[in-house]
Amino acid sequence: MAAEQRLRSVNFWSGVVVLCLTIAGALVGIYQLNEVLTDEQQVPLAELSVQGELHYTASEEVRQALTAEPLGSFFTADVDDLRRRVEQLPWVQKVSIRKVWPDKLSVYVTEHKPVAMWNGDRLINQHQEVFRADITRADSSLPQLFGPENAVKETWEEFNRVQQMLEVNGFQIRALRLTERFAVNVVLAQGIEIKLGREATLERIKRFIDVFPSIVEHEKSKNNEIDTVDLRYDTGAAVAWREAKSES
């Protein structure tokens, strides 16, 4: 009986030792595997692919933004952090990043598409979002919009509404200003300023189109140039002139 109990005890403790060794071995294995997976030298992100229609941002700028700080390994690289690095570039609107086994980082960049200048020092993109970038790199023919900072959408919509009616009649807007009281002033490509006020802007534009031929005839007869056409009246228009530039 005593011998049987001793055998059971030996078997129990032998099992405990084996279990402990197994657990220790598994922990060591997990630790070693973790060391491998988190080691940039063992599983590095060796390939970097940059895609997208890039007009203002060079692929090398994207690479530099990503590698300004360590990327991490394939398993530890934080995709959200890497995305934020690229989105800090001035012309970048949105970034999509994914890992491709075994060592590739695929980056797709969507740029801002400027549609107008905003308040002289910034730009508006295709989603009516204001962004700051080097405006000298944008198309110089972009319209210049001025308005309250909280009325970007309203200013852009007013520009499109007025421009749509003017361009049918051969006019192009160079600049539009929306005041704090939402009054509208427009400067045409030929330098003529049109004051439309707050109300009935489309009706006033139609009036401008109707009276413009007569104004031009007067311009020719007086050898002056049209400076301002003020349409903030129930009928008619007030025209201010500037002296025509002499040709040398």
In the predicted model, the low-confidence regions spanning at least 5 consecutive residues are 31-41
Strand order of the largest sheet: 6-5-4-7-8-9-10-11-12
Number of strands: 12
| Apparent shape | rod-shaped
What fraction of residues sit in β-strands?
25-35%
Major beta sheet summary: 9 strands, mixed
CATH topology of the largest domain: Rossmann fold
Mean pLDDT: 86
What portion of residues is helical? Answer: 25-40%
Distance between the termini: 129 Å
Looking at the overall shape, the CATH architecture of the largest domain is 3-Layer(aba) Sandwich
- CATH homologous superfamily of the largest domain - what is it? Cell division protein FtsQ/DivIB
Structural class category:
alpha/beta
What integer value in Å does the Rg equal? 34 Å
Name of the CATH first level of the largest domain: Alpha Beta
Q: Write down the domain tally.
A: 2
Number of helices: 5
- Element-level helix/strand string: HEHHEEEEEEHEEEHEE
Domain POTRA: 43-112
Function: Essential cell division protein. May link together the upstream cell division proteins, which are predominantly cytoplasmic, with the downstream cell division proteins, which are predominantly periplasmic. May control correct divisome assembly.
Membrane topology: Single-pass type II membrane protein
Pfam families: FtsQ_DivIB_C, POTRA_1
